[in-house]
C-alpha cells in the first residue's frame, strides 16, 4: 500500500483546524487504497494550535506534528514537513482550506498514471483578494518571468502533490532564502497543472501583510535571477557613454563660442539624478550581498522544539 504524507504548515490556525481536519478526514476516508500520514508543522503559533494538534493525535494515529521554537515562516515549515515526511507521495496543503483537499483524489490519479512526477495547482481567479494585492502580484509575475529562466506560474499555489523523487530533489536544495515556487520549477520533473477557482479562507485571517509579501517577492527575484546586477552594469556603461558625448559637446561648444558660466541648476539636477541611480543600484547589489551573507552563515532554517516520535522517521 502506498503511503501519502500531507504536510500542513500552521501558524495560528486554531480556528481553522477543526474544519480542515474534518474535510481531510472525509477525503482520505474515501481513498482506501492509500495509507495516510498527516504531518502538521506548527510554525511557532501563539494560539492553541499545538494543544489542538495534541488533542487530535489522541483520536487519530495518522497525525504527527512538529513544533518550532518560534515562528520561522511558511517556507521553513514546508521544508521541515518535506524533510520529515515518510510517504511515497507527499502533498503540501494550507490549513485554511484555501487548498481544497477535495482535489487530492484527482491529483493522485495523475501521479498513478505514471505520466507525471508532480501535480501542481494554480488559482484561475484571484477573487476575494484585495485589488492592490492582485495588481502587484500580477506585476511581480510578469517581471520575474521576463528576468528569470526559471518559469513562475501566475496564481501558482504551494499546494502540490509529488513523488518521493521530487521531494528528495527539493530537500536537496538547502538554501537559506527559500522561494518554493521557484525551487519546484528549478528541480523540474513532469508537472501537471490543474486550476481551480480561488477559495476564501475558512476561518482566521491571513498571515501575510502587504509588506511581507513585498519582501517575499524581492526574495523570489534575488533567489532566481541576477539580471538586476547585470542591469546595473549596463546602466553604468550607458551613463558613461552619455557623459562622454556630453563632454565632447561641451568642449567643442566652449572652444567655438567661449564659456559663459551658466547652467548650474541643470548641473545640480543631473548630479541628483545620477547619484539617485547610483544609490539605487548600490541598493540592488546590497540586496544580493545581504542574501549571500545570510547563506554563508549556514544557520538552521528552523529549530524544532518538540515533535511526535515515529519509528520510520528518517531524520
Ligand atoms: N503559515 C506558516 N507560517 C507563517 C505564515 C503562514 O506556517 O509564518 C501557514 C499558514 O498557517 C497557512 C499557510 O501557511 O496554512 C498559508 O498562510 P495564509 O493562509 O496566511 O496565506 P495566504 O493564503 O493568505 O497567502
Ligand atoms: Mg490562506
Describe the biggest sheet?
Answer: 8 strands, mixed
What is the 3D form? elongated
Give, in order, the helices and strands: EHEHEHEHEHEHHEHHHE
Strand content: 15-25%
The distinct bound ligands, ions and cofactors come out as: uridine-5'-diphosphate, magnesium ion
Class per helix and strand makeup: alpha/beta
What's the total number of strands?
A: 8
Note the total helix count: 10
- Helical fraction equals 40-55%
Order of strands in the sheet with most strands: 7-5-6-4-1-2-3-8
Mean pLDDT: 87
Q: How far is it from the N-terminal to the C-terminal residue, by CA?
A: 23 Å
Oligomer: single chain
- Our Rg estimate from Cα atoms comes to 25 Å
Low-confidence stretches: 311-315
What descriptors fit this protein?
315 residues, alpha/beta, binds uridine-5'-diphosphate, disordered C terminus
Helix-strand layout with pairing:
Layout: E1 2-10, H1 17-30, E2 34-42, H2 49-59, E3 63-68, H3 74-84, E4 89-92, H4 104-112, E5 118-123, H5 131-147, E6 156-163, H6 164-172, H7 180-187, E7 191-196, H8 210-224, H9 227-257, H10 264-297, E8 304-307
Parallel strand pairs: 1-2, 1-4, 2-3, 5-7
Antiparallel strand pairs: 3-8, 4-6, 5-6
Helix pairs in contact: 5-8, 9-10
Bound molecules: uridine-5'-diphosphate (UDP) and magnesium ion.
Magnesium ion (MG) is lined by residues 94, 96, 98, 201, 206.
